[in-house]
Design goal:
The chain is an alpha+beta fold. 20% of the residues lie in helices and 48% in strands.
């Protein structure tokens, strides 16, 4: 397996119990050259902006469940394929953000 990308991105914020949390999307992609399989592991999580919780991550029921996407292609295409999968995941996670503060 050859690592392609390991990336996370803040796609929005949400208020939970009066505290601001960043909504994050993450992807870890690898490519198997012998089978021509790209595997992208996707997850989403919350990160508190409060200094007392630095480094801690949280989940919420409204976030999409983790996914594993497997695509077939050539090694030259693997990076752009992984970036496309991640961009789609970011849109999905962003769309899940509640429009009202969470109590």
């Amino acid at each position: 397996m050859h690592g392609i990308i390991d990336i996370s991105k803040v796609v929005g914020t949400v208020q939970i119990h009066g505290q601001t949390h960043e909504v994050c999307a993450e992807a870890d992609a690898s490519f198997n050259r012998s089978t021509h399989e790209l595997t992208v592991k996707l997850r989403s999580f919350l990160h508190s902006e409060e200094q007392t919780h630095v480094g801690e991550v949280f989940t919420a029921s409204w976030l999409p469940d983790p996914e594993v996407i497997v695509e077939h292609g050539e090694s030259e295409e693997a990076s752009s394929m992984a970036k496309d999968v991640f961009a789609s995941w970011c849109r999905k996670v962003q769309a899940s953000i509640p429009s009202e503060p969470v109590a």
